[in-house]
Amino acid sequence: MNVGKSSSPLGAEGLNTPRGWGLSIAVAVGENFEIGKNNQLLWHMPADLKYFKQTTSGHTVIMGRKTFDSVGKPLPNRRNIIITRDKNLKIDGVEVANSFDEAIEITKNEEQQVFIIGGSEIYRQALPSTTTLYLTTIHNSFDADTFFPEFNKNEWEVISKQAHKADEKNKFDYTFEVLKRK
């Protein structure tokens, strides 16, 4: 079964997470794998933001320039790498790579997980070599122009899953899953 279309980063206490170097994707998607519209997230879910922070804190995060623009600043307590075609881009607190392969080369000596945190094109390039997928599903459909790429869910094993109901701070039901490539 192929699922997916585009994304955001995750991780959290209580979930089983692989240790050691590996390429991971952190993404939050709607029920149709939608991840954004007009370079913005489609929801405000404090629980997912907390999960993302816990999961990626202390690690390297790799993102495309548009994702960085939507975030607006380097993420604290993380090594930030931006992939851009702009060979002259310089931003304080950020390393710049001009291709996905260059970004991976920069991180090859890491002794921990490296997280891909968006956007859609970067996810597409990373998915074939990703070993772990931190997937938050927001249980609603959204009007979107950006999607997480399709992937074969049969190639992945669910190693952790936590379902949560909407509450006063989180408007929608949501599920945190950690999937490891079989």
From TrEMBL:
<protein>
    <recommendedName>
        <fullName>Dihydrofolate reductase</fullName>
        <ecNumber>1.5.1.3</ecNumber>
    </recommendedName>
</protein>
<keyword id="KW-0521">NADP</keyword>
<dbReference type="GO" id="GO:0070401">
    <property type="term" value="F:NADP+ binding"/>
</dbReference>
<dbReference type="GO" id="GO:0006730">
    <property type="term" value="P:one-carbon metabolic process"/>
</dbReference>
<dbReference type="Pfam" id="PF00186">
    <property type="entry name" value="DHFR_1"/>
</dbReference>
<keyword id="KW-0560">Oxidoreductase</keyword>
<keyword id="KW-0554">One-carbon metabolism</keyword>
<dbReference type="GO" id="GO:0005829">
    <property type="term" value="C:cytosol"/>
</dbReference>
<dbReference type="InterPro" id="IPR024072">
    <property type="entry name" value="DHFR-like_dom_sf"/>
</dbReference>
<feature type="domain" description="DHFR">
    <location>
        <begin position="22"/>
        <end position="181"/>
    </location>
</feature>
<dbReference type="InterPro" id="IPR001796">
    <property type="entry name" value="DHFR_dom"/>
</dbReference>
<comment type="similarity">
    <text>Belongs to the dihydrofolate reductase family.</text>
</comment>
<dbReference type="GO" id="GO:0046452">
    <property type="term" value="P:dihydrofolate metabolic process"/>
</dbReference>
<comment type="function">
    <text>Key enzyme in folate metabolism. Catalyzes an essential reaction for de novo glycine and purine synthesis, and for DNA precursor synthesis.</text>
</comment>
<dbReference type="GO" id="GO:0046655">
    <property type="term" value="P:folic acid metabolic process"/>
</dbReference>
<dbReference type="InterPro" id="IPR012259">
    <property type="entry name" value="DHFR"/>
</dbReference>
<comment type="pathway">
    <text>Cofactor biosynthesis; tetrahydrofolate biosynthesis; 5,6,7,8-tetrahydrofolate from 7,8-dihydrofolate: step 1/1.</text>
</comment>
<dbReference type="GO" id="GO:0046654">
    <property type="term" value="P:tetrahydrofolate biosynthetic process"/>
</dbReference>
<dbReference type="GO" id="GO:0004146">
    <property type="term" value="F:dihydrofolate reductase activity"/>
</dbReference>
